[in-house]
Amino acid sequence: MNRFSIIPCSLRLSSIVSYAELIEFNGRDRLLSQARKLHAHLVTSGIARLTRIAAKLVAFYVECGEVTDAKKVFDEMPKRDISGWVVMIGACARNGYYQESLNIFREMNGEGLKLDAYIVPSVLKASRNLLDQEFGKMMHCVVLKCSFESDGFIVSSLIDMYSKFGEVENARKVFSESSGQDLVVFNAMISGYANNSQADEALNLVGDMKLAGIQPDVITWNALIAGFSHIGDEEKVSEMLEMMCLDGHKPDVVSWTSIISGLVHNFQNAKALDAFKQMLAHGLYPNSATITTLLPACTTLANVKHGKEIHGYSVVSGLEDHGFVRSALLDMYGKCGFISEAMILFHKTTKKTTVTFNSMIFCYANHGLSEKAVELFEQMEATGERLDHLTFTAILTACSHGGLTDLGQKLFLLMQNKYRIEPRLEHYACMVDLLGRAGKVVEAYEMIRAMLMEPDLFVWGALLGACRNHGNIELARIAAERLAELEPENSGNRLLLSSLYANAGSWGSVVRMKKMIKKKKLSRVPGSSWVVSGNVFVALVAASAGDAYYLSSSKKKRRGCLDPENGRLSKWFHQKQQTNPNTMRNPKRKDKERVERARVHSVVSITALAAGLSSVTSSESCSKYDDAGSSLSHRATGFTLH
After folding, report:
1. Does residue 466 contact residue 444 with C-beta atoms inside 8 Å?
2. 181, 288, 298, 590: least CB-packed within 10 angstroms?
């Protein structure tokens, strides 16, 4: 007779409730070591075999990322009724273990258990996030077969799923055929339109919603703000904010995070930082989603100062340990050239997740540290860490940058055969780049032809870059034509092809290409560089031959030292140019004008660097990672971005 069986019933019930609450408490604070001790006590006392306690343990282990332990507890449950399956599948889907969620659902289905309505939203969520359209549509058929189509949560999950697949028409069909169009269902459809760049349709649906006697809530307005932010309609965003206030709802952190996300998406990174400051001025403080959204703006602007301030806030507020925040910080430091800081941040992470590993592998890959990236990948495999499609994108990028062609090809097959991850467009782009860098341009083109999906601009761009490096004009022409179809307004691809023609001495083709660019009125983006010194943003833009300017944050235009007679940098470049034996000349163009334009664009970066360094103080050049929060103004709940 075990210890539990001799406890009186009244005391036993009290103990079960207490144990359940204690497991939940450990789960909230992720106290894994303490929870394991509690689990051991529950096992020895026999309480762990109770369905309620076992379900709590399953949910706890999944939330801590210990899916293997969760599955072990689940498998040892003496009675695995439908409630246990609901907990296991739901916990996996809720915590991002989508493939595991579907695998467990298949296992449940194999045991012949009757489908429960509570499981369906979790399975649909997993299908949505895995972009598994086949499984998702199969589940839709199951929903109809089981007559679950009147359940509002299932209907909204179906709408979310089809919207994520980009099939807005199917989402609308589900919405229209729903018998219970409540606030949740309306919000799902409004979000579906907004997330697919159909914000106007979303706004029209709000009108229908009001006619049906349903008033919009904060979620409704935030969906509209997100939709118009995503398409870059700042005027409409302001209008939505006003309407939201008139409707009795105050913009919250989600509202401002949506605005910041839209600005970053539309490359308005400076405006994104301004919006963040406005959010702070309204007494709202960032959450993990805000920080994750804002850090890419700092990355794009190479504004490490603000990035460190945000990092400091995340430390003080306890958000630094959030998986996606840690990943965004690693990405920011890595892309801004602070690889040492990224390594310190990674190694001090006690609980490394797949997201954290992926970010660090990307950092190593982008800095040419391919061997370290491979070591980290092997560490993930050895420790049983979950590998996803981003893991393989990162390691294939590392192989490409490091010239590890054979290893890259091996990993591409490993991804499919061992880990059952179907190649995505980004994987094909990496492989084309990998083969192209190795000189296997024809093999890269054959891989594109064998793709089961339509190649995007990144795949064709990788091939065009490889053709440029290895002088394959025939395949370059094919790649440039495909890119012209995908990006009709981008002159860069045609200019690159023109450069290949010039290298081959095909000046007639060069002239025809230039005429076509002129006929289509395609503009050429001028070369530019910038540097940030303290609070001063110094940018330099090449305007025309023999003339360039740098702009400080005070927006005063100043002439750069590019004068061929007086500029010391110009003289230096002129000497370098004369020593270059490979300088090619086009006999059908004015050599002087062409060389002068090339000289201006090449010296842009040097002049910007000189202009920036002239204003950098010695103290600024000695900044350290340890001072990440030094410029943080934090009083109780106050946070100021300087």
Report:
1. yes
2. 590
